[in-house]
Amino acid sequence: MLANSPPHTDLISTVSNRFHFKAIVYILVILFGLGTWTNLAGVWIQLPIITPILPESWHLPAKLTLIINSANIFPILIVFASLVFKFNTSSFEVPVNFVLLCTSILFAIAFAFLWDKTADLFGTKQSVYLMGLCFITAITDCLSSTTFIPFLHRYEPIYLNAYFTGEALTALLPAMIGITQGIGKSDCVLFGNETNGTLIEVHHQPQYSVQTYFLLLSFLPLSALVAFTILQFMKTGRSKIKSKPVKSEHKQSSIFILMDNIEDIDVIQNTIATINNIEDKFKKPKRKPNQLKKFLMSEPGIFLFIVFQCSAMLYGVCQGLTTFSLNAYSVTTFHYTIITSQFAYPVMTLVAAFIPEVSSKIIYSLYAISTGLFVYIFLTAKLSPCPPLVNQLFGHLIIFFVWILMNLTCSYIRILMGNYFRKNLGHRGLICFGIATQLGALIGATTNFALTNTFELFKERNICDKTLQCF
After folding, report:
1. CA distance 163 to 409
2. Residue 379, phi-psi category: left (phi > 0), alpha (psi -120 to 50), beta (remainder)
3. Which of 1, 17, 116, 220 is deepest in the core (most CB within 10 A)?
4. Is 438 exposed, middle or buried (0-12, 13-18, 19+ CB in 10 A)?
5. Residues 272, 273, 276, 281, CA torsion sign
6. Residue 178 to residue 61: CA distance in whole angstroms
7. Pairwise CA distance, residues 383 & 449, whole Å
């Protein structure tokens, strides 16, 4: 027995070392997942602070929502380009990832110093630097979805879950930094004499400035860059079995795509589809005239419409209505509702890990609940500057929980739908799911922009206007 002890001890030591190395790789992949989406998440966290300062004022969220969702069409264009030109991304995934991570750090620093810079555009002052940075950042964040996930297919499947954990943290960590920042108070200061003077709202700085917030945020993509660099020198966790290419009449594309918007960190695991095969279109049977109608009336067609509407409500319309629905109550309600909403998707991802599927009746019930919550949010925005119970604590609590429940239900519905399409329709279903998500968000953002900026359906509230009496 004693003679066999050293080899047995060496075996235990070897297994232990392998476990430790795999744990290190797992942590590094989590950090790698922090590489993108943090900057845009930070912009939304800062909205309560920057909205009263920038010239767009309460119309700022509607403009940013439209800009960001417009930028998200670029992944779709990349996929179509890969199908037409039949190129493979595996050869340049690593250098592109390095570039994307470096630009993410630079954009965070750029946000810190340029967020409040304005320029004359169409005769009025506009926050062109902030909007330009949001547009470019949205493009790079979407492009990362076509290179980050394929890179991880060099590793064992377990590390993909680590990446999704990192993606979830891109919403949580900016929110937690926002909690430490707090929200500056505002006072009504009298300018002039008591007879002809004017009350003007004066905003005070929070615990630290917007510039400091974005500089702190830059450490998240920096940690992702360091982790990605270390992963290049570690062989632990790499997949040893390489899949053999399937022979086909067409050249395969290895592009992976996430067709989703800014929060989208959101539902990433359900919307990634590997574009493996390009089927011969000429061999497809001709569709019957009633086939489209039959599909729209089927369960997959109805579920696809639910995905479209939930995305339109949550990522299109609601994001643009944050000021009119929340800021009318108070800047504090606005601030903490926005921050708490960032926890919705990670929480529902955890719930979905234990309850990945539910019955159709429960899905329809959740859909009805989310629609009802959306109607209340829209009504509060429409009734601004005097939404329901605006001067009562109970009203503030109602609007807070309505927004949180709206985010929870819509996030869970979209996760359930992603699981449904992946299980029943495969990669084709995921592509349809992604397209419905993106189209819903884009159409919702466009509609909200028209209602807010073109038709001016919603009104701001000036808390220093004593002539306005809300009951």
Report:
1. 24
2. alpha
3. 220
4. buried
5. negative
6. 18
7. 17
82: β partners: none
Q: Which of 3-7, 203-207, 396-400 comes out lowest in average pLDDT? A: 3-7
- In sequence order, the 6+-apart residues with CB closer than 8 A to the CB of 89 are 82, 96, 146, 147, 150, 253, 254, 255
pLDDT at position 249 over 80: no
CB 141 within 8 A of CB 36: yes
Does residue 281 contact residue 381 with C-beta atoms inside 8 Å?
A: no
Q: Which long-range contacts (CB under 8 A, 24 or more apart) does 352-356 make?
A: 352/412, 352/415, 352/416, 352/419, 356/416, 356/419
DSSP output for 46-70: HHHHHTTTSTTGGGHHHHHHHHHHH
**Distance between CA atoms of 267 and 259, rounded to whole angstroms?**
10
What tokens does 95 get? 């250098």
Query: Quick one: tokens of 111?
Result: 């946000």
Q: Cα separation of 204 and 74, whole Å?
A: 39
Strand 124-126 relative to strand 119-121: parallel, antiparallel, unpaired?
A: antiparallel
Please state whether the peptide bond connecting residue 206 to the residue before it is cis, i.e. omega within 30 degrees of 0: no
* Beta-carbon contacts of residue 120 (< 8 Å; ≥ 6 apart): 126
Contact 276/252 with Cβ under 8 angstroms? yes
| 229, pLDDT greater than 50 | yes
Asked: is 22-279+289-454 a CATH 1.20.1250 domain? The reply is yes
C-alpha pair distances (Å), 207 with each of 2, 204, 218, 222, 342: 64, 10, 18, 24, 20
392 DSSP assignment: S
- Tell me, yes or no, if the pTM score tops 0.85: no
Phi, psi (degrees; rounded to nearest 5) at 188: -95, 115
- Annotated domain spans of the chain: 22-279+289-454
Q: How many residues does the chain have?
A: 471
Q: Is 382 exposed, middle or buried (0-12, 13-18, 19+ CB in 10 A)?
A: middle
- On whether the CB atoms of residues 419 and 410 are closer than 8 A, the answer is no
* 100's tokens: 């994307």
Q: Look at residue 249 and give its three-state secondary structure.
A: coil
Mean pLDDT of 95-116: 94
**What digits encode the pLDDT tens for the residues 339-350?**
999 999 889 888
Residue 310's nearest CA partner among 440, 450, 443 is 440
DSSP code for 468: -
Nearest 5°: CA angle at 397, between 396 and 399? Answer: 70
* Cα separation, 138 vs 72, whole angstroms: 7
